[in-house]
Design a protein that fits this description.
This protein has one domain. It is built from four helices and four strands. The strands form two sheets. It has a two-stranded antiparallel sheet with strand order 1-4. Strands 2-3 form a two-stranded antiparallel ribbon. The longest helix has 19 residues. The mean pLDDT is about 90.
Length: about 110
């Protein structure tokens, strides 16, 4: 499926989400940025995840970044979408952030 990774996330009222980056500048929160952070961050139970599976997460994060850099959608398998949903649920426990991510991952739901 084509995932719109360059799309900016919006809050429940439809306003664009933004956060300060590591330098203090306010930046837009995109789906791709949120997915990459979830994919490359340590989440609960990662020590029990096989190294090969963690490497697959890294490679998916690279593909997402390439799509963002080229302002393209990222082609993902159903398995990759499920993985992204699982990891974003662990990385972003607030429904206000997790909800918009999941809506963009599966827009038909």
């Amino acid at each position: 499926m084509n995932v719109p990774v360059s799309k900016q996330l919006t809050d429940i009222s439809g306003k664009p989400m933004s956060i300060p980056d590591e330098t203090g500048h306010v930046v837009d929160v995109t789906l791709g940025g949120a997915l990459i952070k979830a994919l490359v961050s340590n989440v609960s139970g990662d020590s029990k995840v096989a190294a090969e599976d963690r490497f697959k997460r890294y490679k998916l994060a690279q593909r997402i970044q390439a799509a963002v850099d080229n302002c393209e959608d990222c082609q993902m398998t159903a398995e990759e979408v499920v993985l992204c949903k699982q990891l974003t649920a662990l990385a972003y426990t607030a429904p206000g952030l997790m909800g918009p991510i999941w809506e963009l991952l599966e827009p038909a739901n």
